[in-house]
Design brief:
Elements lengths: L30 E6 L2 E6 L11 H13 L2
Antiparallel strand pairs: 1-2
The structure holds zinc ion.
């Protein structure tokens, strides 16, 4: 005879997952490109800055690489 059903593992202890509507790779790091003369370099809110590039697309690649290494 089965009188008591097994408890469902619904209530799991732990912090709820943070809801992030924006597809930000990581919090605290916001990269942007800064033009300096004829060059362009990537900058991050954490203080990181990439090397000066002659193309903005390269600076964005540096920014993506910085976020990927986090
Ligand atoms: Zn950063």
């Amino acid at each position: 005879m089965t009188s008591v059903a097994p408890p469902a593992p619904a209530a799991a202890p732990g912090p709820p997952p943070p809801a992030s509507p924006s597809p930000a790779p990581s919090a605290g790091h916001s990269t942007t490109t800064v033009e300096r003369g004829s060059f362009c370099l990537a900058r991050c809110t954490c203080g990181w800055s990439g090397p000066a590039r002659r193309a903005r697309d390269r600076a964005r690649t540096d920014a993506a690489a910085h976020l990927a290494l986090l």
